[in-house]
Amino acid sequence: MTTTARPAEEGVVPYPPEVAERYRAAGYWTGQTFAGLLDAAVAAHGTRTAVVGTGPSGPQRWTYDELDARARGLAAGLGELGVAPGDRVVVWLPNVPEYLEVVFALFRLGALPVFALPAHRASEIRYFAEHAEATAIVTVGRRDRFDHAAAALEVAGAVDAVRHVVVAAPSAGDVPSGVVTLGSLRRTPAGALPGDDADPSSIAFLQLSGGTTGLPKLIPRTHDDYLYSVRASAEICGLGPDTVYLAALPAAHNFTMSSPGLLGVVHAGGTSVLAPSPDADTCFGLIEAEGVTLAAVVPPLAAAWVQATSSTSRDLSSLQELQVGGAKCAAELARKIGPVLGARLQQVFGMAEGLVNYTRADDPDDIVVETQGRPISPDDEIRVVVPDDPEERDVAPGEVGALLTRGPYTIRGYYRAEEHNATAFTADGFYRTGDLVRLDPAGNIIVSGRVKEQINRGGEKIAAEEVENHLLAHPDVVDAAIVGVPDDFLGERTHAYVIPVPGREPPRPAALRRFVRDRGVAAYKVPDTVEVVDAFPATGVGKTSRRALRAALADHARRPTPGQHPDPDADEESPS
Ligand code: OOB
């Protein structure tokens, strides 16, 4: 039975009207929509190259006029298929040029993209589709030894609301039956489309949070709030029509999308180059071939690029700026980037929920190396409060505390998450970021840790509870706890403590890792190491909460006892 999906705005916590008015009066919220963003680029830069990359049908290079014609044509085809304004559509695409075509087609149609990461697998896609009541999934066919189309069909079979699976593939012969190819939906560009006069204060799309509890939360962003962050980011980062931006990280990530990312480039009329893989070989080749001026990476990737410069024959001289964010960039790494890569470093500390901080082009080197920058907007409100203080009193200036924020592009609540919102936001609308920070006298933020139940594995966020739940689904497991342990390359990796069912043959670590992976989750969530134990080693003192338990276990994991081999099978199969 097909039930009618609830409207998109249901389950959204709006900005209070007087606050919205203030953001409009200040000129942050201009009434621009995503369709309007592309209109403006077409009007000012129609014949300039918008996007370069290799899709399922081979290499592509489209001007803004061409991108727009494709998006309009696809919007018409998706409309004929039955995708309606207000529908949610899971966009599950790797870094292919079609990503921009699809996203702008959905905006033109007034449908809302739900941004999944390429690393996600059926269990995550199913959850997004269910939670957002998505009517369609757009993906690719077989790629990176994984059949996305087949997995999307599996999800469509399990989730009532999903009626269509659309696949970017060269021809129908390359995909399973039951899916529609993107090519078959391309129509002659239509005139007016429903999204052309979308309400700028409405929700434009749903972005993913890293998640701290069971499953990632969905983040509703309005045209007004998000496009303010895009335009302001483009200005702070000095983007212009000559900018050639390399999208090395997944296009759907907030960093790549808007800090200033692909959308900032559209605003500026520059060119986006979509890298099929983030490795130095691929990216250095693209930097040389396309004259890339700006790229964005996570710290482990920055380290790998720095390492690779010594043996590359590629000319990287076009690269002016390298943005590093998503996880803390160690000062030692930060210091190498300028001299080794010949590009200026910009640190970016952001979150899909809103707040983004940048070091600025004219900051002294020490600030760029030692801090994670300062907010985009003069109206980003920053509070640093005493961790675990029920009254959330401000710390003394310069002290470390928990970061709370509120502002013109930070959400007031997750999508359809009333219960979680009650703890993730203060009564007066501040978002509890879960990050531990301190401020320098100039207001630059230095990230020093976190209070949230999340592991940051080289920029990829893992909710401990989500992975624990997967382990608990194993019939031979009675309890499990996931902790982050320091890692030279990733910053942090995951370690699982698993208690087996007494009296049965304990499962082997490698089998448990395979079990988690086979449940259809992103590879980065599969625990790096698994230790099967009779009881949690640190529970003697009577831990009262999972949080206390994880903290104690994390301490324990960081102090390996001599001769201990946590997981003899760890190298048997690499999780990523
Ligand atoms: C970005 O967004 P998310 O939503 O994947 O993750 C946000 C979290 C932050 O709360 C913080 O814990 C961590 O990632 N983080 C950093 C950081 N940048 C993000 N921690 C330390 N130093 C940094 N530079 O990761 C994101 C979104 C937009 C732009 C850049 C990153």
UniProtKB/TrEMBL annotation:
InterPro entries: AMP-bd_C (IPR025110), AMP-bd_C_sf (IPR045851), AMP-binding_CS (IPR020845), AMP-dep_synth/lig_dom (IPR000873), ATP-dep_AMP-bd_enzyme (IPR050237). Residues 39-415 form the AMP-dependent synthetase/ligase domain. Residues 553-576 are annotated as: Disordered. Residues 466-543 form the AMP-binding enzyme C-terminal domain. SUPFAM superfamilies: Acetyl-CoA synthetase-like (SSF56801). This is (2,3-dihydroxybenzoyl)adenylate synthase. It comes from Actinomycetospora chibensis. The lineage of its organism: Bacteria, Bacillati, Actinomycetota, Actinomycetes, Pseudonocardiales.
